[in-house]
Amino acid sequence: MSRLPIHPYRGRLAPSPTGLLHLGHAATFWVAAERARLAQGSLILRNDDLDPARSRPEYVRAMIADLQWLGSKWQEGPDIGGPCAPYNQSERLPLHRAALETLRAGNFVYPCTCSRRDVQAAATAPHAADDEPVYPGTCRAKSSSRDSPPGGCCFRFRVPDGEWISFVDGNLGEQRFRAGRDFGDFVVWRNDGVPAYQLACVADDHAMGITEVVRGADLLVSTARQLLLYRALDWVAPCFFHCTLLRDEEGRRLAKRHGAMTLKALRERAVDPAELRGQSGAGRLTPA
Ligand code: GLU
Ligand code: ZN
């Protein structure tokens, strides 16, 4: 008889509806779905529609159709509901706000009035080349987060400069990033009242009881940032499994701009999704 895990596995697929899913997403999401299935756990579909300017309802519809076509099966999600509803991130703002308040009360964050592009970009996950520059700390010493007004400015998390953040990744093994060098004080809340990806992701993964986060290796540095948030919020962090990224023939990371590689295009060309899963190596569950 197989031993039941003490903590039932809860995984998630968390696409952002800011474009069509492509082959790279298929690879990561297939691994996420397979890991939940093999662990006899649950898979949650979360619609990461935090950024009001970039999220589109047609991409939410396409994401659900693409994932169904790929063969992923989830037990909770925006299309079917579940005990952790709502599954649209944009409807979970009170929870994100509560997490911000905890960080403010603990003086882990400070208000920042710099108007920078990375503040606007903060609502979406920083994939690889578009990760934010290390913040020079201009507003760090200005004021405490406790006496700042709640609206109208952005909030940054004060990272422990020089500290090594390490974790053992389920796929890639030991990982180490240095706070203040590999990443700086990062945005947790935008100045227009939109939570940043880093904070919303941690608050939702925690509230949804996620036990393992499967994501692309381009988010390794974000995982280090998020581990600091878990610690500050006094929450137990999930396990992490980062998938190596697919590259095209020229060695470039597959991205949304490779239009022909969207799952929608492949679906419409009647490509067999089973063939696609094999090709992408998405079913591989152990490190190379
Ligand atoms: N919505 C994020 C994205 O699409 C989720 C990343 C993650 O935390 O796994 O990149
Ligand atoms: Zn600033």
Explained architecture:
The protein contains eight helices and nine strands. Residues 279-288 have low confidence and may be disordered. It folds into two domains: 1-91 and 246-288, HUPs (Rossmann fold, 3-Layer(aba) Sandwich); 92-200, 3-Layer(aba) Sandwich (Rossmann fold), CATH 3.40.50. It is α/β, with parallel strands linked by helices and 288 residues long. A three-stranded antiparallel sheet has the order 3-4-7. 30% of the residues lie in helices and 14% in strands. The structure holds glutamic acid and zinc ion.
List the helices and strands and how they pair.
Elements: E1 10-13, H1 23-38, E2 42-45, H2 57-70, H3 93-105, E3 109-112, H4 117-121, E4 154-157, E5 164-169, E6 173-178, E7 187-189, H5 197-207, E8 212-216, H6 220-233, E9 239-243, H7 263-268, H8 273-280
Parallel strand pairs: 1-2, 8-9
Antiparallel strand pairs: 3-4, 4-7, 5-6
Helix pairs in contact: 3-5, 5-6
Glutamic acid binds next to loops.
- The CATH architecture designation of the largest domain is 3-Layer(aba) Sandwich
In whole angstroms, the N-to-C terminal distance is: 30 Å
Uncertain stretches: 279-288
Q: Tell me what portion of residues adopts beta-strand conformation.
A: 5-15%
> What's the CATH class label of the largest domain?
Alpha Beta
Name the helicity range. Answer: 25-40%
List keywords for this structure.
single chain, 288 residues, Rossmann fold, three-stranded antiparallel beta sheet, two-stranded parallel ribbon, 8 helices, 14% strand, binds zinc ion
